[in-house]
Specification:
two-stranded antiparallel sheet; 254 residues; Muramoyl-pentapeptide Carboxypeptidase, domain 2; single chain; four-stranded antiparallel β-sheet; globular; signal; M15 family metallopeptidase; 8% strand; binds zinc ion; alpha+beta; Zn_M74/Hedgehog-like; DD-CPase-like; VanY-like_core_dom
């Protein structure tokens, strides 16, 4: 007993001296006396950590942002916003010769060219519509069908995604012009499958009327850029409202 106590004291004293004898600590020099409590952990193969998708990389409020979220509760601000970088898409039929914002125009050219290469030539039937055009269009629908009906298929001025310059409506020269059956056509299916590769999403998908406020529009493609389109595709989150945790917008505030 006595011996082991003496050993313990000596060991303790030696350890104390060893500590005192060490070089004066330099700032930043790691201490080496603490053993790794779980050395086996470091032996496990480490998976490369994917950087988390940065949902704040672009604004959802700025009308010039490629991620702007426009819906029945989120009018563009200012309400008569007009983009500053409009450009006419080249090499694609464009029924009303409407332009798009620069990045969306280039992406639309690439996507429609690829669709044509795949044997499904499509044409643009609507792109950028300015505030004044939407005022006239919406008012004509209200006059014809009444406001309640018009609100189900046409956006009020300042609430139309087409006013962002980031949207194209497409058609395949078939019998489903601006109709739900476009989603069942070969072109509609090809576009739904490949849109994300070009930075577009189907903005008003099936089953999400209560979120987006619009009936399914398989012809309406919104440019959000390839990064966000790929992330939405990968996560299976199909609406901008859900992806960015924004309130559902089934109808107008008043
Ligand atoms: Zn549209």
């Amino acid at each position: 007993m006595r011996v082991s106590l003496a050993v313990a004291i000596i060991v303790g004293v030696s350890a104390g001296f060893a500590g005192c004898a060490a070089e004066p600590a330099k700032p930043g020099k790691p201490t080496t006396h603490a053993p790794d409590p779980e050395p086996t952990r470091t032996a496990e193969p480490t998976k490369p950590v994917e950087p988390a998708f940065d949902k704040a990389a672009h604004s959802v409020d700025d009308p010039m942002s490629i991620w702007v979220v426009s819906n029945k509760l989120r009018p563009l601000n200012p309400i008569d916003f007009a983009p500053s970088d409009l450009s006419m898409p080249e090499g694609v039929e464009n029924e009303f010769n409407q332009p798009l914002r620069e990045p969306a125009a280039r992406a639309a050219e690439a996507m429609t060219a690829a669709a044509a290469d795949a044997g499904m030539p499509v044409r643009i039937i609507s792109a950028y519509r300015d505030y004044g055009t939407q005022v006239a269009l919406y008012n004509s629908y209200v006059a014809r069908d009444g406001q309640a009906a018009a609100d189900t298929y046409s956006a009020r001025p300042g609430h139309s995604e087409h006013q962002t310059g980031l949207v194209i409506d497409l058609d395949d020269h078939g019998s489903c012009y601006l109709m739900g059956c476009f989603g069942e056509t070969a072109a509609g299916k090809w576009l739904a499958e490949h849109a994300a590769e070009y930075g577009f999403i189907v903005r008003y998908p099936e089953g999400k009327e209560a979120v987006t406020g619009f009936m399914p529009e398989p012809w309406h493609f919104r440019y959000v850029g390839p990064e966000l389109a790929a992330e939405m595709h990968a996560t299976g989150i199909v609406t901008l409202e859900e992806f960015f945790d924004l309130p559902a917008a089934p109808g107008y505030a008043e």
